[in-house]
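Anyone else keep sequences and structure tokens together like this?

Example one:
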Amino acid sequence: MPASFDDIEIGQVVSLGATAVDPAALDAFCGAFTPGWSTDRGAPDAMVFAIWARLDAMAATDWPQTKRLGVDALRWMRNPPPGELLRGRMTIMAKDPVGDGKGVIIAQHDLLDEAGRLVFSCLTRSVFAR
């Protein structure tokens, strides 16, 4: 969605890409940040958030998004196992012009597993150039 604020439509769905839960990265993450977490339980919530944040950052590199104002309403539904392919998507929920040169986009972000089940979701508010 490399589009300016005015070209973004409410209800528009944008792919954030896909990535697998890398077993080596899962082991390293658990060792560094979640002591006591067994990788048999899948990726811990903090790693699921990090996976979403990476997909979001990579997708937004060419967007006219100038600032992320907030991330809230975070929900974790399940902990995906090593090797699971996760797919990110963003749905535009609302938009609000805040001047001649910018506007705020409110979006829901979902991280889905291979079966299309919800793994993680959150809401974001971001400033986009007009």
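And example two:
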Amino acid sequence: MSAILTYVLHKDGEFNKNSLGAVSEAAKLAGEIGGEAAAVVVGEGDDLSDDLLKTLGKYGATKVYRARAPEGLAQPVVDAMAKVIQDEGYKYALFGGGLLGFEVGAGLSARLGAGVVMEVTEVKAQDGKLVAVRPILQDSAIVDAGFAGEPGIIIGRLNAFDTEESGSGDAEVVDLDLQLQDHSTKAKMVQRGEQRGADVNIEDADILVAGGRGLGKAEGFELCEQLAEALGGAVAATRAVVDAGWYPYAAQIGQTGKTVAPKLYLAAGISGAIQHKVGMQSSENIVAINKDPNAPIFEFSDLGIVGDLNKIVPKLTEAVKAKKGG
């Protein structure tokens, strides 16, 4: 009856939001196909107490496997999840978004010879099995992907799964007797980064200046930040530049980011893919700057400016400052 296994990343006694989203999604889907939702937590510190791990029951996990191994590294997690799947017969492994989730999911697929679907935005239960939904062709189309065998590995995009407290009790904690593979001990954690952009709030802003790949590089966002400051607004970004590490995920707008409806949405160097449009089409006024006159964003903009944003945005910033100064 075992159904879906997830991995939950943690730090300083707190669970990762995207991991909790995966647990919540697994619990919902497990109820639809029969079986349980369980989680694997890996770590060596004293913060993996029974009391902490039991709280995953609030998100729908019925069982939590605790593996004493280096945390934050992919290979020990692959070892732990592979053992649980092989010993307990879980049919699916589901991961929230993030680089570690992609690395663990891919490694687990290779270890078990399992099918894997990445960049998943939705998971559906059909005829007792799971079907993963993901965009293809640069997000211009959506496809359903099933699995020919078991287990099936599903790796979601960042923030694809909502975090919901659906459980009513504590999860059962099981200590895993784990022997790490030799290669799994080669890497060492040197420094662990913080969550990017935790203080960015774009949903409440009346004015947003959003940047896309047309900015050319991460430093290009300085133009957006200067204009946003002059206007009294905030800066947003597309998924492509967030994935490239140019700007924090918390500022991402679109199908797998945030949905906004400011009074003014100014798009700099954004082509206007349908997934981005979903997140900002309710804006009251949309102004787009793009050097490509055929960019799709012009089709739903109130005002379109064809030209070099590196020249237009600074001049616009100067004009706003001059206007306010006057």
